[in-house]
Amino acid sequence: MAKAQKSYVCQACGAVSTRWAGKCDACQEWNTITEEAAAASVPKGLSGSKKGRVIDFVDLRASEQTDYARLVTKIGEFDRVTGGGLVPGSAL
């Protein structure tokens, strides 16, 4: 688990810093910086943005076709592990 982040806020001007200092760099006031618990932030990748498109998944087991055309990569071990190459809709 990550450490709890602390922030330091100037009581005179509201400037935020990641470490304590005797004098605020923004307003130049002395002894106005106090420690506060930083607000919990959401990781960048999980911000809940609505960008992109909806993906419809297809259950490959429900398909009647059992022999798919495979894309051979000509990388021997990779093709062996993937069963002879990649098939449409495959995910690794």
Could you give a quick summary of the protein structure above?
The chain is built from one helix and three strands.
Structure description:
With about 90 residues, the chain is mainly β. It has a domain at about 5-40. Helix content is about 5%, strand content about 15%. The protein has one helix and three strands. The chain has one helix at about 75-80; strands at about 5-10, 15, 35. The protein has a three-stranded antiparallel β-sheet with strand order 2-1-3, with no helix packed on it. The protein is elongated and about 75 Å long. It starts with 5 loop residues before the first strand and ends in an 11-residue tail after the last helix. The model has no long low-confidence stretch (mean pLDDT about 80).
Short descriptors:
mainly beta; 7% helix; 13% strand; 92 residues
Q: Based on the structure, what is the oligomeric state of the protein chains?
A: single chain
State the low-pLDDT regions, or none: none
Q: Strand portion, in percent? A: 5-15%
Total helices: the number is 1
Main beta sheet? 3 strands, antiparallel
Strand order of the largest sheet: 2-1-3
Distance between the termini: 28 Å
Q: What best-fitting shape do the alpha-carbon axes yield?
A: elongated
Strand-pairing-aware structural class: mainly beta
Radius of gyration from the CA trace? 27 Å
Determine the mean pLDDT: 82
Would you report the number of β strands?
Answer: 3
The string of secondary-structure elements, in order, is: EEEH
Bin the helical content.
Answer: under 10%
